[in-house]
Specification:
alpha/beta; Rossmann fold; 2 domains; five-stranded parallel beta sheet; four-stranded parallel beta sheet; 47% helix; globular
Length: 308
């Protein structure tokens, strides 16, 4: 691990960690996928960004594997019966995830911290190996590391165009987040819509929501107002253009960052980058030195007390 860089504030550290992802992705070795038959008896579990990684494994397995909240497993241990469980946590010390792991008879920790409580509780460890700024900031490289580990356990993936995806995401993420923000996704991008909302909460402290693209027209749209922002994580197609047209007529800004690649792993990585850059760009636009979760000490203390 690299030494602490004292000169960086937490927004600068966030930006540096985002940039470090390119070097990490050049050398990453994805996991070997488990069989489709075994996936039917596999559970992924995590909280926060780690739940988004678990949900991506579920989506990329075509829902053979399941993604579950750790509190659900704590309350209903039958969900783990005859299952192999992968518990995702960067720190490896989140109380609820560790408690859920204790109930599993066949478990694997996906964590950066191989000496953590989670690692000690599980029967094996898949260690996430990456360098970051070693400064408390919003999750970026850690999320991408866990995301790729989880996805590659259920589907063979190849990371070849990371730099192009990174630059495209950087270019397409320079939109201004105004008022209430909605991030919409589908099967493979809905977990990333959740991740994007999390980066907006943590970095900016804004009112952000994540929803499935189709469900937004049934539900979330009725809470939207003139001046709000909608971001659509989906390829540029007729459905998206029709939705954008309606939103424009309602006075709602609608953005559709997209790439031409049909590779679902490319799509996932691209929207992970968009999520990070959108939060970073708007933090810079507001001239923030530190992320919202760092300056909001009482909220952070409440969060930490519940998590750890």
């Amino acid at each position: 691990m690299k030494p602490r860089i004292k000169s960086l504030n937490t927004v600068e550290a966030f930006e540096r960690d985002i940039t470090l992802q390119l070097g990490f992705l050049k050398n990453i070795k994805p996991q070997k996928p488990i069989s489709k038959k075994a996936q039917k008896n596999t559970v992924f579990c995590g909280s926060g960004d780690s739940l988004a990684s678990a949900m991506l494994a579920e989506a990329f397995s075509d829902y053979r594997a399941r993604a579950l909240d750790p509190l659900d497993l704590v309350k209903n241990k039958r969900l783990l019966k005859d299952k192999k469980a992968y518990f995702v946590s960067i720190s490896g010390n989140t109380i609820c995830t560790v408690s859920a792991a204790k109930a599993a008879k066949n478990s694997m920790a996906i964590t950066r911290n191989s000496s953590s409580q989670l690692a000690k509780t599980c029967h094996g460890v898949l260690k996430l190996d990456y360098d970051d700024s070693n400064i408390l900031t919003c999750g970026s490289i850690g999320f991408v590391a866990s995301m790729i580990s989880c996805i590659s356990l259920v589907k063979k993936i190849r990371i070849k165009t990371a730099k192009n995806l990174f630059e495209s995401a950087k270019h397409q993420s320079k939109f201004t987040l105004r008022n209430k923000v909605y991030v919409l996704g589908n099967q493979y991008t809905y977990p990333l819509a959740m991740y994007a909302a999390a980066k907006m909460y943590e970095t900016l402290g804004i009112d952000a929501h994540y929803e499935r693209i189709e469900q937004f027209s049934h539900m979330g749209l009725f809470s939207a107002r003139n001046g709000d922002t909608v971001i659509i994580f989906e390829g540029n197609n007729r459905y998206v253009r029709k939705l954008q047209k309606h939103l424009k007529l309602l006075g709602i800004s609608a953005y559709n960052p997209s790439i031409k690649s049909k590779s679902i792993s490319d799509q996932a990585l691209f929207y992970a980058f968009v999520s990070q850059f959108a939060a970073l760009y708007n933090a810079k636009r507001k001239r923030l030195s530190d992320c919202h979760f760092v300056t909001s000490k009482k909220i952070r203390n409440a969060s930490s007390d519940m998590i750890y």
